[in-house]
Design goal:
Elements: H1 2-21, H2 23-46, H3 50-62, H4 67-73
């Protein structure tokens, strides 16, 4: 029993080491962490959601846009 547990722990440890060394394996965690930080900062500093900020930024960058244009830029449903 102990040998099987040690073997599983060793395999898990090796798997974690490979994942930590793999940039692509860490991308989703990094994206989630940055999204969480951005949400917190925007809410604290200017009481905006990420979506609201992205709409304002799109309008700032390009000028007047339709809802469909904004949705297309953000790859979201225009409704």
């Amino acid at each position: 029993m102990k040998y099987e547990r040690d073997t599983r722990m060793d395999q898990l440890s090796k798997r974690r080491a490979r994942e930590n060394a793999n940039l692509f394996g860490r991308l989703s965690a990094a994206a989630a962490a940055s999204r969480t930080d951005a949400q917190r900062i925007l809410k604290t500093v200017c009481d905006l959601s990420v979506v609201e900020w992205r709409v304002l930024w799109d309008l700032y960058e390009t000028g007047p846009l339709t809802e469909r244009d904004i949705a297309s830029n953000q790859r979201a449903d225009h409704s």
